[in-house]
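Hi Q.,

Before the meeting this afternoon, I wanted you to have the iron/sulfur cluster prediction in hand. No need to reply - just skim if you have a minute. The sequence and ligand are here:
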Amino acid sequence: MPLYSHSRLGTYENCPFQYKLRYVNKVKPLLGNSIESFMGSMVHDSLEWLYKLAQDSNVVSKETLLEKYDKLWNENWTDTIRVVKKDLTADNFKETGQTCLEMYYDRYHPFDQSITIGLEERMMIELPENKKMQGYIDRLDKIGDGHFAVHDYKTSNRVPPQSKADKDRQLGLYALAVHQRYPEVKKIDLIWHYVRFDEEVCSSRDQKQLDSMISSTVSLIKEVEAATERKDFPTKTSMLCNWCEFKAQCPEYSHQYASQNDAPTLSTTTITALQAAETVDKLIELKEKKKNLSSDMDAMMETLESQLFNYSKESGHTVVFGKDYKASFNTSESVKIPSKKDLKRYELESSLKELELWDDVQEMSVWKVKSMLKSDNWSEEQKEKISNFLDKSENPRISLKKL
Ligand code: SF4
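Predicted structure with the ligand bound:
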């Protein structure tokens, strides 16, 4: 039975394919860590070091803390760490980390607000249906008799609203873990330190909130287990892909990396990655040409048609003969049904029903059947019965989008 964690479940929620590579196949990512995550780790490690010494009554100076941060940064730095944001450099991030620590130090020195009982404390969480989770609390403090505080450091560049903090799963799970480890607990403060902004966000959980979090977490674990059973881990692209360490191994982006290095053609491919990239460029060039040509031709045809219409009107000839074709002229009336957004549409529908003409104009909408088959409005049994009448085929389609 795998041991879950908040970040493991978060990975599945963000992208099941990344989950598969990281946790099921245990593949090593080809791309390096992001600078945001590296800077976050260095700030965390520095604060852990600071509190570890403070636990033994050794409160270091701010300068010593910054020296430690600098040392940790240099010792752990590797050139594979990626700076994704175009206008920023690694030095910018290093400086941001320093500022975070300086502000934190000034605010909490001499770090004796409460008694630290755990740093990077591993907590086990027992859930119903024999599910188990683990988590590491950045800092666990004891404030008084049965009163605990869970501290979490965040270096992200956004402070979430209180409503989001009140629903946060990670610290909710830690609250549950504290409850399970210390039965005497009376109160648990959940505190996030948004160190970039010198901001504290505080929350707590009552039993009802804990119960609801437990049930949604168990449901999510079951969903992950069902996906694992089915081996069903689709890719889920989003902004987060830019920071994903598996980007070069993901079918959504791997060609980009293969074509950059012009990787050798696999035995099953007829063209190389570079040739495939050139083919996309050629295809889009032809599509553009076709579009321009077609709009030029539409304009030319419109001019010719208008010349012929005028000629027919002026000459009284209702048919004009070419070499192999003849052109006839007539004007027909077009009928437009009001759109769905137009109130008149509903009035029209009511009148058709009132006049008992509705059945004459009703017919099955192909689009509606397809969308109902995808929705949750029809039961699986209903879907299966309807699907029996449908012919399914695979239609290969290339969609071209601007990068
Ligand atoms: S690049 Fe995006 S879609 Fe691919 S694995 Fe990473 S997060 Fe998922």
